[in-house]
């Protein structure tokens, strides 16, 4: 399924400086082709998903249905947008090298060391 020339038109590129301050291509979350799709069609996709823009053809209507959960993503542009939404809306997990339990530093201080008894 190819993208119709009239579908998802926008007069500017899509950038998400809030979630990707260094750019989506440098994030490692997307392939270069996915970044190109998001930059080229992202403004229109965002407006369609939020309801700011109404669909003008079947492809855009299907995209709106995918966003509302009424249909499964079929085209690459729909899959890329769902991947973007998943990355942006899912809270990032924070991993630490240390556990939650505190190490008792008092155990060494309580042990008496007598150096004079030799």
Mind explaining what this structure looks like?
This protein is mainly alpha-helical. The chain has a domain at 16-92. It is 41% helix and 0% strand. The chain has helices spanning 32-50, 58-67, 76-89, 106-110. The longest helix has 19 residues, at 32-50. It is elongated, with a radius of gyration of 25 Å. The termini are far apart.
Care to give the gist of this entry?
This protein has helices at residues 32-50, 58-67, 76-89, 106-110. It has 118 residues and is mostly helical.
Which percent band covers the strand fraction? under 5%
Low-confidence stretches: none
Nearest-integer average pLDDT: 85
Distance between the termini: 88 Å
Helical fraction: 40-55%
Q: Which key features would you list for this structure?
A:
elongated, 4 helices, 118 residues, mainly alpha, single chain
Which SSEs are present, and which pair or pack?
Elements: H1 32-50, H2 58-67, H3 76-89, H4 106-110
Helix pairs in contact: 1-3
């Amino acid at each position: 399924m190819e993208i119709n020339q009239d579908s998802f038109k926008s007069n500017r590129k899509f950038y998400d400086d809030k979630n990707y301050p260094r750019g989506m291509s440098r994030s490692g979350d997307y392939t270069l082709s996915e970044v190109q799709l998001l930059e080229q069609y992202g403004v229109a996709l965002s407006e369609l998903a939020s309801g700011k823009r109404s669909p003008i053809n079947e492809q855009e209507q299907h995209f709106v249905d995918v966003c509302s959960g009424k249909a499964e993503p079929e085209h690459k542009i729909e899959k890329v947008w769902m991947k973007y939404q998943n990355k942006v809306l899912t809270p990032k997990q924070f991993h630490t090298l240390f556990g939650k339990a505190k190490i008792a530093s008092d155990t060494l201080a309580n042990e008496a060391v007598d150096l004079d008894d030799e």
